[in-house]
Each structure stands twice: as structure tokens, then as C-alpha cells.
Amino acid sequence: MERLLNIKELSQLLSVKQSTIYDWVHQGLIPYYKLNKLVRFRESEINEWLKKRRSQHYKINLTPE
Description:
Elements: E1 4-5, H1 7-14, H2 18-27, E2 33-35, E3 38-42, H3 43-52
Antiparallel strand pairs: 1-3, 2-3
Helix pairs in contact: 1-2
């Protein structure tokens, strides 16, 4: 069974504040599990969630030719 991450571990993994993670959970923006009053995350589901939200970056040349 895959180990579940807590809020602190996920915030460190994503380099965001713990309060941001709580906001995402409250808004239903991120996949999570609630065990009694504890919020937990599967790293594999977070990775899939991130892949779906990846934005495309394009290099644009702004110098005249």
C-alpha cells in the first residue's frame, strides 16, 4: 500500500504554504482522503493532478529579425 502524505509533507513537496493546501482541500481542487479529522494525500494521485494542470510554455522571440 502506498504511503499517504500529510499536509506538511505535501506543502514541502510542492513548495507551497500549508494554508494553500488547506484552501485547495476546502475548495475541492486537489485529490485527498479524510481519515476522521486527518487529511492525507497519495503521492501518485498528486503527480497525476499536477500533470493535468501542467501549462504549455512556448519560447517567443521578441527581437526584430
